Structures are given as structure tokens and as C-alpha cells.
């Protein structure tokens, strides 16, 4: 217990760092995931190709490699940002590929006739997707999106290796101070557990309210 009580501010700073990464990267992932899912089912071929390439590359690229590409590659093209923003960008883009596929699988559960009926009434693709297809698809993709965001919270630990303040990175300081490494990691695990259980609770409430009854 001394590890926590004597270093509460350090743990708190790491916890807030992980929480911020999770929140901002989740928002970016949801927005990009929605856009890419729309691209993948769009009637325009170039959009479908772009969405497919985006998902294929990011789903098959190790997240650590993506961090290196963003942190070290983008500054070479003149884009210099704080490491925290680079971490949000890497996490958000990576997770958006999985959000996209979850949404696309939900879109595929909506009967084709729904879209055809909407188009026969004169609705555009955007109107059909936003007003008819996605509201129905959303109900079936709540659990997989929740699981994906929980994975994002745990993946944020990689950011600590790139000088970003987050929970896992606190072990380096505590190890140098001579604290028991086992208890150091126990309290780190508790911090991640709090975040992931909070996400799980939110999506459980959403599923009970809007999810598909099975």
C-alpha cells in the first residue's frame, strides 16, 4: 500500500494521462471509423478503394510500428506536434480501422430493401446512410465497438515508450526509487482496470437501452 500512498500524485498523473489518451483517441477513432465505414459502402468506387486501403494497412500494421511512423516520420515532413498529440493520432487512426469494420458489419445486417426503399423516395446516399441504415446498424455494433475501445485503453500503454505521460510509464520512476516492482505493477493494473470497467459499464448501459434483443 505504501507504493500507492507515497506516490499517489505520480500514479494520479499517469492515470490522467492514460484517461486523456483514451478519451481523445476514442473520439478520433469513432469519427474516422464512421467516415471509413461510409467510404466502404459508398457508391463511388474511389471512396471504396480508399476505405479498403485504409483498413487493410492499419489492421495489418503493428501498433508499435505505427507509433514509430507517426512520431519519427511526420516531423520529417514538417509536421511537428507535442508527443501527446502524435500518440492520439497513432492510437485513433489504428483503432478507426477496427471501428470501421465493426460498423460495416452492422451495416450489412440491415436488409438491402431498407436502402432501396429510401432511395426510391428520393433520399441521397448520405441521407439514406444517416437516417435509415446507421440507426439500425448501431444497435448491433454496440458490443464490438465497446470491446474495441477497451483494447484502445490498454494499447495506450505503448505511448509511454515515446515520452508520453501515461500509467504504465510510472513503473520506471518507481523502480528507480527502489519500490517493489510487483506492487508497482499491481497498482498500475488497478488503474487500467478502473478505466476499462468504466468503458464496459457505459457500453453495457447503451446495449441495454438500444442493443438488439437476443
Automatic annotation (TrEMBL):
Q: Where in the cell is it found?
A: Cell membrane
Q: Where are the transmembrane segments?
A: 21-42, 49-74, 80-100, 181-206
Q: Which domain of life is it from?
A: Bacteria
Q: Which InterPro entries match?
A: AA_ABC_transptr_permease_3TM (IPR010065), ArtM/GltK/GlnP/TcyL/YhdX-like (IPR043429), MetI-like (IPR000515), MetI-like_sf (IPR035906)
Q: Which UniProt keywords apply?
A: Amino-acid transport, Cell membrane, Membrane, Transmembrane, Transmembrane helix, Transport
Q: What Pfam families does the annotation carry?
A: BPD_transp_1
Membrane: is it a keyword of this entry?
A: yes
Q: How does the record say this protein sits in the membrane?
A: Multi-pass membrane protein
Matches recorded under SUPFAM superfamilies: MetI-like (SSF161098)
Annotated ABC transmembrane type-1 domain ranges read 15-203
Q: Which family does it belong to?
A: Belongs to the binding-protein-dependent transport system permease family. HisMQ subfamily.
This chain belongs to which protein, by name? Amino acid ABC transporter permease
Q: Which organism is it from?
A: Streptomyces omiyaensis
Amino acid at each position: 500500500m505504501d507504493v500507492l500512498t507515497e506516490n499517489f500524485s505520480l500514479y494520479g498523473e499517469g492515470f490522467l494521462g492514460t484517461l486523456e489518451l483514451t478519451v481523445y483517441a476514442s473520439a478520433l477513432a469513432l469519427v474516422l471509423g464512421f467516415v471509413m465505414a461510409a467510404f466502404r459502402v459508398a457508391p463511388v468506387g474511389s471512396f471504396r478503394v480508399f476505405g479498403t486501403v485504409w483498413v487493410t494497412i492499419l489492421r495489418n500494421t503493428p501498433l508499435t510500428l505505427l507509433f514509430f511512423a507517426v512520431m519519427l516520420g511526420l516531423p520529417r515532413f514538417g509536421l511537428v506536434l507535442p508527443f501527446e498529440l502524435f500518440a492520439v493520432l497513432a492510437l485513433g487512426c489504428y483503432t478507426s480501422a477496427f471501428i470501421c469494420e465493426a460498423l460495416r458489419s452492422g451495416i450489412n445486417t440491415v436488409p438491402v430493401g431498407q436502402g432501396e426503399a429510401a432511395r426510391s423516395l428520393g433520399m441521397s446516399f448520405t441521407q439514406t446512410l444517416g437516417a435509415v441504415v446507421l440507426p439500425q446498424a448501431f444497435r448491433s455494433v454496440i458490443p464490438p465497438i465497446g470491446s474495441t475501445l477497451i483494447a484502445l485503453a490498454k494499447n495506450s500503454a505503448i505511448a509511454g515508450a515515446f515520452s508520453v505521460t501515461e500509467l504504465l510509464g510510472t513503473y520506471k520512476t518507481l523502480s528507480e526509487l527502489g519500490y517493489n516492482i510487483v506492487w508497482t505493477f499491481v497498482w498500475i493494473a488497478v488503474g487500467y482496470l478502473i478505466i476499462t470497467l468504466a468503458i464496459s459499464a457505459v457500453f453495457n448501459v447503451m446495449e441495454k437501452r438500444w442493443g438488439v434483443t437476443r
